[in-house]
Specification:
With about 280 residues, the protein is an alpha/beta fold. It has two domains: about 170 residues, Periplasmic binding protein-like II (D-Maltodextrin-Binding Protein, domain 2, 3-Layer(aba) Sandwich); about 100 residues, Periplasmic binding protein-like II (D-Maltodextrin-Binding Protein, domain 2, 3-Layer(aba) Sandwich), CATH 3.40.190. The chain is built from twelve helices and eleven strands. The strands form two sheets. The protein has a six-stranded mixed sheet, sandwiched between helices. Strands 7-6-8-5-9 form a five-stranded mixed sheet, with helices on both faces.
Length: about 280
């Protein structure tokens, strides 16, 4: 992507993060794709440029990537209908479907995992070693983090009582806090580990593989016509067969985009009560 194009997309992303202004895509010729803010605006723009270009070519209309300042703000924008297409975590997708009529299209494969890691230079011999220390996470609303906090609860450790949860903007930032001795452990995923520089990643050790959770789900706006929904779904399912799609998936740590059905969506239901409580 040309530098000026990247700059413009980055500005749009940043504006979305700070203001969260409703885009009203149904009244605009621009198709808005909402992406969870797991990277900086610049990295999001770079990472999703292949998908943006692909959709622009297939939909025959301008496509823009937007985000939000944090996970909560992103979900609120999705529910409000700011995005024509939301690329959202599984628990947000289920709420978007059940509470706002969002239409599930496809999901990334394989599933996300939830990993508890420590630094080779600062071993975590037992979960009890977290007492009085800090646990670095990307966002407490991340479903992988929620799964990890629930697991630690089963081990007799209560978040922000027995240990302190510290949120970071990126997986890499959380990892740096670990190797710099600011945190005793981090929660990440196999996909998140790809965001961490190799020299840092080599110092991380998996203490516990906690759970497998459905990966990001791509959701259409509630009011999108069925004919457009089907067109969009076909385009997304064909994307992994394109050279740009193959490269995109490799860089993001996924292998495919696959159809999603109601049975798959129901896998997420055990996380909904905690999600609703956390969003209040």
């Amino acid at each position: 992507m040309k530098p000026i194009r990247l700059l413009l997309v980055g500005i749009v992303l940043f504006a979305g993060m700070i203001t969260a202004v409703k885009a009203a895509p149904s009244a605009s010729s621009t198709f808005i794709v909402g992406v969870l803010p797991i990277h900086s605006a610049r990295v999001l723009a770079e990472r999703y440029e292949p998908l943006r270009t692909y959709l622009e070519n297939h939909l025959k209309q301008p496509v823009r990537i937007e985000s939000a300042f944090d996970f909560r703000g992103f979900h609120l924008r999705s529910v409000r209908g700011d995005f024509d297409l939301s690329i959202t975590p599984a628990h947000f997708a289920r709420l978007l479907q059940t509470e706002a009529g969002g239409q599930p299209l496809v999901q990334f494969s394989p599933d996300h995992d939830s990993l508890l890691l420590y630094s080779a230079g600062q071993p975590l011999n037992s979960f009890a070693d977290l007492k009085g220390k800090k646990l670095a996470v990307i966002d407490q609303l991340a479903i992988t983090v929620m799964a990890a906090l629930h697991f630690l609860h089963t081990q007799g450790l209560e978040a922000n009582l027995d240990y302190t949860v510290v949120q970071h903007r990126t997986h890499a930032s959380a990892a740096y806090s670990l190797i710099n001795g600011m945190s005793a452990a981090i929660i990440s995923t196999s996909q998140g580990m790809r965001q961490i520089p190799e020299e840092v990643r080599r110092q991380l050790i998996v203490k516990k593989h906690i759970a497998n959770i459905p990966a990001f789900i791509l959701m259409a706006r509630a009011d999108m016509p069925k004919s457009q929904v089907e067109q969009l779904k076909r385009a997304l399912l064909a994307f992994p067969n394109e050279a740009a799609g193959i490269d995109f998936l490799a860089k993001t740590g996924y292998k495919n985009l696959i159809p999603i059905n109601e049975a798959a969506m129901k896998r997420i239901d055990p996380y909904l009560d905690a999600t609703i409580k956390a969003l209040k």
